[in-house]
Amino acid sequence: MANDKYLFVVSGAAGTGKDSVVKALREAHPEIEKTVSATTRAPRPGEQEGVDYYYRTREQFQQLIENDQVVEHNFYNGNYYGTLREEVDKRLAARKVVVLVIDVHGAANIRRMFPGATTVFLLPPSVEELERRLRGRGTETEDSIQERLATARQELAQQDKFTLKLVNDQVDTCADALYQAICQRIGAAE
């Protein structure tokens, strides 16, 4: 697709600050769009269809996967979560910059479906800092932290498959570096 250059995927291990960096990026540059994901989990109080998520039944979600209408998905805590292809396609058709926050495995699928997309791997300043961040959340058991760290090491080994690597040692600085990369990419092919 000719407009793939407007698609940016931010990935990295848990605790690298993907969501924080993209939030800072979008706060500074609200013209950058983020898609609304689909899920099979029930809406939480106050959540709205098409704003927080697109809520689908398990059967509907599986049909979307079978029809190649989900660009990436995960199964977590008994529910599917994923990005609908139409969410990406409509923004790219309008030449809008789209940033997706996706795990390492989902990024591989994006590379297959959108070969012109830019994939960005966020790195922690160190593995020790990554562990400190995971522990600092205060939401994980020791077993869960150890499992996440083992997964993080596997994910960190995938970093060379990405277009660009950025170290997130400070959220605003990293968000600015990401914005500069976006400007360079979309300007280079104009």
TrEMBL record:
CC annotations in GO: cytosol
Keyword flag ATP-binding: yes
CDD domains named in the record: GMPK
Gene3D superfamilies found in the cross-reference section: Guanylate Kinase phosphate binding domain, P-loop containing nucleotide triphosphate hydrolases
Subcellular location field: Cytoplasm
InterPro entries for the chain: GK/Ca_channel_bsu, Guanylate_kin-like_dom, Guanylate_kinase, Guanylate_kinase_CS, P-loop_NTPase
Protein keywords: ATP-binding, Cytoplasm, Kinase, Nucleotide-binding, Transferase
Record-given protein name: Guanylate kinase
Organism, scientific name: Faecalibacterium taiwanense
